[in-house]
Amino acid sequence: MLPIFRFFIVSKSTVLEYNLVLVVAGIIFMLDVYHHVNAKQKTLPNISLRSYTLGLIPWLSWMRGLSIVSYILNGLLGIWMARRPSFFKYWGYVLTSIMLLIYTFSIAVSRFFFPDFEFYCHLLIEAIWTANEMGLLEREFDCCGKAGVIDYIMTNRTPSAMSCCEVEDCHGCKKSFNDFLWNIEMEIARDNFTLFVMMLIGLVIMTIFFHSLVLFQDPYEPESSTLPSSS
């Protein structure tokens, strides 16, 4: 145990348990990334999103996945470091945490404050309509056309019998699709903000725990050597 600022005490078990929580949280958030990739494949399998900055674009999914893998590995490093602390592991943990904090915070803010969201949604649904790929959206959201059945009437196109809902005033897909995309944006923001807060707390706990330890040990000393504990 290390007495911190007279009233605050951080134990070795606290460091171990919190980093274990970070690892479990990372696995849960990785499932969210998988869910979003699957949602893209389910609703927009033949539409390229390279020209859009929406949350479903492939490169953002890859970056989120890689950052969460780094987050999980950092949590495992924290567990290892709590058991066998060393100068290199400590600063590796700190530097990785800082980089991930910057990344997760920037992603969370960019998703919360997205002034061009409506613009990109409009461009995307127009691209889907032009490519004649509305069928999947219509089945998924139980809608018809962009604004309604009138879109098919005005363009002299026939909707798929399996797509449009079987009523004359069937609503269009634009609002449902926009809501779907906005929910994904908010889930991405929520996940990254939660990761940011959890990593920040973990970094503070780790710094407090190790600030009194003799981390500046001989780098050539065997890794298995233990550090003297503080009373």
Automatic annotation (TrEMBL):
Keywords: Membrane, Transmembrane, Transmembrane helix
Signal sequence annotation: none
Cellular compartments annotated: Membrane
InterPro entries, per database record: Tetraspanin/Peripherin, Tetraspanin_EC2_sf
Family matches, as SUPFAM superfamilies: Tetraspanin
Protein name, UniProt field: Uncharacterized protein LOC115619950
Membrane topology reported for the UniProt record: Multi-pass membrane protein
Membrane-traversing stretches: 20-37, 57-79, 91-114, 193-216
GO CC terms of this entry: membrane
Entry keyword Membrane: yes
Source species: Drosophila lebanonensis
